[in-house]
Design brief:
Strand 2, helix 2 and strand 3 form a beta-alpha-beta unit. Strands 1, 2, 3, 4, 5, 7, 8, 9 and 10 form a 9-stranded mixed β-sheet that branches. Strands 6-11 form a two-stranded antiparallel ribbon. Helices cover 49% and strands 14% of the residues. Helix 9 runs antiparallel to helix 12, helix 10 crosses helix 12 and helix 11 runs antiparallel to helix 12. By secondary structure, the chain is of the alpha/beta class.
C-alpha cells in the first residue's frame, strides 16, 4: 500500500519531538529559573481600566509571530459581550497597529516570546494577574488554535457557567470501551472555564506554581494539557466537558436518512483511506436499512477519531459547536475548509465568521 509523503513526514516529526522530550525535561527547570529572573520582569504588558476589578476574565493566547489573527479580535468582541474582560497574551509580540486595536477594544495585553507554547503563555498570564492582585470569580483560558466564534449565537459559555461544575472544557475526549473504566480522558486546553472555587483551590494553584515551561511541543501536551486534565479530573473538583462523543451521537441518532447522507457526504476522511472507501460505498448503497448502516458507520468513525472534525455537518449544525479547530493535520485542515464550503451552500443556518462580530476578513 502506497504511503503518502506527508504521513512519513508527520511520523518523523513526532519521533523527533519525543526524542527531544528528554533533554528538554532535564534542562527546562534551569531554563525557567533563568527566564523568571532575567526575562519575566521585562515583559511588556498593559492593563485596561476594567481589568483589576473584573469578576470575569478571559486569557486569550495568540501565536502572533506572523501577526494577530483577525479571529482574535472577533473573540474579544464576543467575550466582552458576555461580561468578560480579556487579557490577550501575544506569544511572539505584536505590532503597534495591533496593540492599538487591542486598546480600542479595551483588552489588556501581555507580550512575550513563544517559549512554552500555550501553557507557557497561560502560566505567565496567571503569574502576572497574581502580581497585580487581580482575583476574578471566573476565568477562561483559550488559544487561537480555534477560531471562535463561527456561529452568530452560541450557548457555550452560558452552558459552562450554568453547569454547576468547577472546571469545564469545551471538549472532553473520553476513552472508548475497554479503557473507559480506568482512564478519565482529556479535557482539551484550547477552551477552558474555571470557577472561583477552582481558581482558589490548592489543586489549581499548585499545578500552575509548579508548572515548568518547555520548548518541546510533545512535553507541553504531556505535562501541560494532559497533566492539567488528569489533575483536575482526579481532584475533588467537579469537572465536565460541554461537548462529548456521547452527545454527538445523541444528535446523530435524531437525524433522518437525508441528513445522515449529507453528514457522510461532507465527512472528513482525507487521512484514512479505509473510511474514505467505506463512505463512498455506503453513499452508493440502496437499502431500507440505510439509516442504520449510516449510524453504524458514524459510530465506528468517531470511536476511532475525534468527533469534533469527523462530521462537520453534525458538529456545527446540530451539536452547534461555535468554533473551528485550526490545526496542521490533514483532517483538521479539511474540516476547516469543509465548514466554509457548507456555509456557502447554505447548510449552516446561522450566520458565520465571515460576517459576525467583526469588520475583519477571515483567513483561510
Amino acid at each position: 500500500m502506497k504511503i503518502q509523503f506527508w504521513k512519513w513526514r508527520r511520523e518523523i516529526e513526532v519521533l523527533l519531538e519525543r526524542l527531544l522530550y528528554y533533554p528538554y525535561h532535564l534542562l527546562a527547570p534551569f531554563l525557567q529559573k533563568l527566564y523568571d529572573y532575567f526575562w519575566f520582569g521585562r515583559l511588556q504588558y498593559w492593563t485596561a481600566a476594567g481589568c483589576k476589578n473584573s469578576k470575569g476574565l478571559a486569557i486569550v493566547l495568540s501565536y502572533s509571530t506572523r501577526g494577530i489573527s483577525p479571529s482574535v479580535y472577533r473573540t474579544v468582541r464576543r467575550l466582552n459581550r458576555l461580561s468578560l474582560h480579556v487579557l490577550v497574551v501575544c506569544n511572539g509580540g505584536a505590532k503597534q497597529i495591533e496593540i492599538d486595536k487591542l486598546k480600542t477594544l479595551e483588552a489588556s495585553y501581555l507580550l512575550r516570546p513563544n517559549w512554552g507554547y500555550d501553557f507557557g503563555g497561560y502560566r505567565d498570564a496567571l503569574r502576572l494577574l497574581d502580581n497585580l492582585q487581580v482575583k476574578p470569580d471566573e476565568l477562561i483560558l483559550m488559544n487561537d488554535s480555534i477560531e471562535y466564534p463561527v456561529l452568530s449565537g452560541d450557548d457555550l459559555i452560558h452552558s459552562m457557567r450554568a453547569s454547576g461544575c468547577d472546571f469545564v472544557g469545551a471538549i472532553h475526549a473520553k476513552p472508548h470501551r475497554v479503557k473507559a473504566a480506568t482512564e478519565v480522558g482529556v479535557i482539551f486546553s484550547f477552551f477552558l472555564w474555571a470557577s472561583a472555587r477552582t481558581i482558589q483551590s490548592d489543586t489549581w494553584r499548585i499545578f500552575w506554581h509548579s508548572y515548568v515551561m518547555t520548548g518541546s511541543k510533545y512535553a507541553t501536551v504531556r505535562r501541560g494539557e494532559r497533566a492539567l486534565s488528569q489533575t483536575m479530573l482526579t481532584s475533588r473538583l467537579v469537572c465536565k466537558g460541554i461537548y462529548t462523543r456521547d452527545k454527538f451521537m445523541e444528535k446523530a441518532k435524531q437525524l433522518d436518512a437525508d441528513e445522515l447522507r449529507i453528514a457522510i457526504e461532507y465527512g472528513v476522511f482525507v487521512d484514512d483511506e479505509a473510511f474514505l472507501n467505506k463512505a463512498a460505498e455506503l453513499l452508493e448503497t440502496v437499502s431500507e436499512d440505510w439509516p442504520v448502516l449510516a449510524l453504524d458507520f458514524i459510530t465506528m468513525v468517531v470511536a476511532k477519531r475525534n468527533f469534533l472534525y469527523s462530521f462537520p455537518y453534525i458538529t456545527h449544525r446540530h451539536l452547534k459547536v461555535p468554533f473551528l479547530k485550526r490545526g496542521s493535520s490533514a483532517a483538521q485542515l479539511a474540516a476547516y475548509k469543509t465548514f466554509y464550503r457548507m456555509e456557502e451552500q447554505g447548510l449552516i443556518p446561522n450566520l458565520c465568521a465571515r460576517t459576525i462580530d467583526s469588520d475583519e476578513p477571515r483567513q483561510v
